[in-house]
């Protein structure tokens, strides 16, 4: 059973293989047969075969053992490209249809031809061409041919085993076509290379040169040269080389140098190179403008113009033109000319050299400015002791005026563009030599200007001291520094002007009012003028004294001094002085109390007024006698029913006294006889209390009221004689 199954399966498999072979035989195209394979180009092989029915394309395969290159073609012949030169390849082919591909054809071998040599061509001369190349793989020889590119003329062909070849006797300026290939040991030629090369042209002939002296340019022309693309004109001198290039048969060379001899030649060139230089033509340019021009004015009014000689210069012309438009010139074969000139002008000077080629280029135009003219109408005016104002008329050519004042040692300068100058900071009382110089920036100062003298006003005096003597005379002292000067001193204040004059160094003024402030100045005067006032010195007169002085005895040891205030007095000092001592009071009021006064003494009373600045006026000296001393031991005694005796002890010195008894029934007074120390009061009522005061009487008759008061009781009973009862003491009121 199993054996039967195996047989069945084997039969089925064999049947399937047969079916596949039958189907394949029906669909795939036939295998092509290669007729021939050959190479004409070094990177390809061409294959020829018989056409296969039903094939729509063919697959060519080239294999050299290292690489396989396939190419799809439509029909025979077909070419496989991208191959290596001089290489043996195995070629096969497959036919392709819509039903599939055939098997590979039997192989056929073919070898690619040699590579083309890589040419390098050059033109060493107008009638030759050099051809060079690198060695070619598998090559044993080379063939090189040359002919004119336009097809005219002869073809030259040379075989060589070298890698270079030179063709000679060619036409100049002509385009040639060069073709070369290599062959192998079998004599089979390889790929060929083709290139074009032109021979260089001949040198131009018939050169013509035309020179333009105004622009320093040369126009050069020549006959055209066969095969020339460009022309180069060379202008050679000892110091420079100039050129111009063109495609035409003429060219202009610019920037030629003056005073130079040039050799002019022309080169023709094309893509092969340049020709030899043509025969040189000689060109002499115009002379250069003369240099090292010097201009001198010596003496003033005469200009001398000199210059250096130049190459190729035959003669010279110098032109001088002033700034007012006037022009003069001189023609000379020398190197110097002389001209007349005037002050304050600017002259423009140019020098030209001449030869057969024409006038030299314009060189530097020199300007020479003559010294400006001097001012002539100078008018100095003395403004002050140190200042002089000077005015003059403007002069030609002056840009600035320089004024100098010289006193022999010192120089004071003033520079200004205006025709006026104020010279300040001069020394007073000094003789100056004053000169006004005209100045221009180019030429400087005209030092030939004349000068004149002027003496400045006197110096201001310097007040050294202002003093006042005991008689209120003002003494003013100053320092005199001027020659032959008179000095005037002025004291100016609200209460008027006071003056004194002197030719010395001091003067005095009297009658200046008290309590005033003055400004004291001094001036000096000479024939040249008056000085500036000196610095003012303040002067304050002493304060005015009071108009009256009153002394009042306040107590036995105190007096009151009063007065009417004087002008500008700020404080007062009152001094009461005697042999026993001094009492002093300093106050800003118009009265003063002086204490510690000794009664019954003679004093000297002094009053001083003091201003705010400390000036003192001794205003009053007078005698003063203090009042007599108050008596001591005042007692009352009964003299009867209605009488009272008042008794006291007199103080030192002689004095008159007055006794007053004050009671409710009246005031009772008695005065003793001179020299006595008691007095009696009659008809005084008893039974009352009395206030008793015994007072000294001044020489003026004024009764002083500052002595002590005592109280006594006067009864109406008891003895009619005896002492009255003392009841107490009252202070003086």
Structure description:
With 733 residues, the protein is mainly beta. The chain has one helix and 63 strands. Strands 3, 4, 6, 7 and 8 form a five-stranded antiparallel beta sheet that branches. The chain is elongated and about 215 Å long. The protein starts with a helix and ends with a strand. Keywords: Signal. It comes from Galeopterus variegatus (Malayan flying lemur). This is Fibronectin type III domain-containing protein 7 isoform X1. Pfam families: fn3 (PF00041). Residues 1-25 form the signal peptide.
Please give the structural blueprint.
Layout lengths: L1 H26 L6 E5 L5 E6 L7 E7 L4 E6 L4 E4 L6 E10 L2 E2 L6 E4 L7 E7 L2 E6 L7 E8 L7 E5 L3 E4 L7 E9 L5 E10 L6 E8 L4 E7 L6 E7 L4 E6 L3 E4 L7 E10 L2 E2 L6 E4 L9 E4 L4 E5 L8 E8 L4 E6 L3 E5 L5 E10 L2 E2 L6 E4 L9 E6 L2 E5 L8 E7 L4 E6 L3 E4 L7 E10 L3 E2 L5 E5 L6 E7 L5 E6 L6 E8 L2 E7 L3 E4 L7 E10 L2 E2 L6 E4 L8 E5 L5 E5 L5 E10 L2 E7 L3 E4 L7 E10 L4 E10 L6 E9 L2 E7 L6 E8 L2 E5 L7 E5 L5 E10 L11 E6 L7 E2 L1 E6 L3
Antiparallel strand pairs: 1-2, 2-5, 3-4, 3-6, 6-7, 6-8, 9-10, 10-13, 11-12, 11-14, 14-15, 16-17, 17-20, 18-19, 18-21, 21-22, 21-23, 24-25, 25-28, 26-27, 26-29, 29-30, 29-31, 32-33, 33-36, 34-35, 34-37, 37-38, 37-39, 40-41, 41-44, 42-43, 42-45, 45-46, 45-47, 48-49, 49-52, 50-51, 50-53, 53-54, ...
């Amino acid at each position: 059973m199993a054996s039967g199954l195996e047989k069945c399966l084997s039969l089925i498999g064999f049947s399937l293989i047969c079916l596949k072979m039958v189907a394949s035989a029906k669909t795939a195209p036939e295998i092509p047969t290669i007729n021939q394979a050959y190479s004409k180009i070094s990177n390809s092989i061409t294959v020829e075969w018989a056409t296969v029915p039903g094939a729509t394309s063919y697959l060519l395969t080239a294999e050299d053992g290292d690489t396989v290159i396939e190419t799809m073609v439509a029909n025979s012949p077909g070419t496989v490209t991208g191959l290596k030169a001089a290489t043996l390849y195995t070629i096969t082919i497959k036919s392709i249809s819509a039903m599939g591909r055939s098997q590979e054809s039997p192989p056929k071998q073919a070898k690619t031809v040699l590579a083309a040599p890589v040419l390098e061509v050059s033109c060493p001369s107008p009638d030759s061409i050099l051809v060079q190349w690198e060695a070619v793989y598998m090559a044993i020889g080379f063939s090189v041919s040359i002919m004119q590119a336009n097809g005219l003329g002869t073809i030259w062909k040379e075989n060589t085993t070298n890698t270079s070849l030179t063709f000679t006797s060619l036409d100049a300026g002509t385009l040639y076509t060069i073709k070369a290939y290599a062959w192998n040991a079998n004599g089979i030629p390889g790929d060929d290379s083709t290139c074009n090369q032109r021979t260089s042209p001949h040198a131009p002939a018939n050169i013509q040169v035309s020179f333009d002296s105004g622009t320093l340019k040369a126009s050069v022309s020549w006959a055209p040269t066969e095969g020339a693309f460009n022309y180069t004109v060379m202008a050679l001198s000892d110091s420079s080389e100039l050129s111009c290039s063109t495609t035409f048969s003429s060219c202009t060379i610019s920037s030629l140098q003056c005073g130079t001899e040039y050799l002019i030649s022309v080169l023709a060139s094309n893509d092969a190179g340049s020709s030899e230089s043509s025969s040189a033509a000689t060109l002499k340019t115009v002379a250069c403008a003369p240099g090292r021009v010097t201009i001198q004015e010596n003496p003033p009014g005469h200009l001398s113009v000199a210059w250096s000689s130049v190459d190729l210069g035959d003669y010279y012309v110098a032109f001088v033109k002033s700034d007012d438009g006037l022009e003069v010139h001189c023609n000379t074969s020398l190197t110097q000319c002389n001209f007349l000139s005037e002050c304050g002008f600017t002259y423009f000077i140019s020098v030209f050299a001449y030869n057969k080629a024409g006038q030299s280029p314009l060189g530097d135009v020199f300007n020479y400015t003559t010294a400006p003219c001097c001012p002539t109408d100078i008018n100095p005016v003395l403004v002050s002791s140190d200042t002089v104002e000077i005015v003059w008329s403007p002069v030609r050519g002056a840009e600035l005026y320089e004024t100098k004042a010289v006193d022999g040692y010192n120089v004071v300068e003033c520079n200004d563009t205006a025709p006026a100058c104020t010279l300040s900071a001069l020394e007073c009382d000094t003789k100056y030599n004053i000169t006004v110089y005209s100045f221009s920036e180019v030429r400087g100062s005209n030092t030939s200007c004349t000068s004149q003298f002027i003496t400045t006003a006197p110096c201001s005096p310097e007040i050294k001291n202002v003093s006042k003597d005991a008689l209120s005379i003002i003494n003013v002292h100053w320092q005199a520094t001027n020659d032959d000067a008179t000095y005037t001193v002025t004291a100016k204040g609200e209460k008027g002007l006071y003056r004194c004059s002197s030719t010395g160094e001091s003067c005095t003024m009297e009658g200046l009012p008290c309590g005033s402030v003055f400004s004291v100045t001094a001036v000096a005067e000479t024939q040249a003028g008056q000085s500036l006032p000196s610095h003012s010195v303040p002067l304050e007169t002493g304060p005015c004294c009071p108009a009256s002085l009153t002394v009042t005895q306040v107590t036995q040891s105190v007096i009151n001094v009063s007065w009417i205030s004087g002008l500008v007095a700020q404080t007062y000092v009152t001094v009461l002085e005697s042999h026993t001592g001094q009492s002093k009071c300093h106050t800003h009021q118009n009265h003063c109390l002086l204490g510690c006064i000794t009664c019954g003494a003679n004093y000297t009373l002094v009053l001083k007024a003091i201003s705010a600045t400390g000036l003192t006026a001794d205003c009053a000296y007078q005698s003063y006698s203090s009042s007599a001393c108050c008596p001591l031991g005042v007692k009352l005694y009964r003299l009867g029913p209605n009488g009272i005796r008042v008794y006291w002890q007199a103080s030192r010195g002689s004095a008159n006294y007055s006794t007053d008894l004050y009671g409710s029934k009246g005031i009772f007074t008695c005065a003793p006889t001179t020299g006595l120390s008691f007095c009696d009061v009659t008809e005084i009522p008893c039974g009352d209390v009395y206030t008793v005061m015994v007072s000294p009487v001044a020489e003026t008759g004024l009764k002083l009221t500052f002595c002590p008061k005592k109280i006594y009781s006067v009864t109406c009973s008891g003895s009619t004689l005896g002492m009255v009862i003392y009841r107490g003491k009252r202070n003086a009121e």
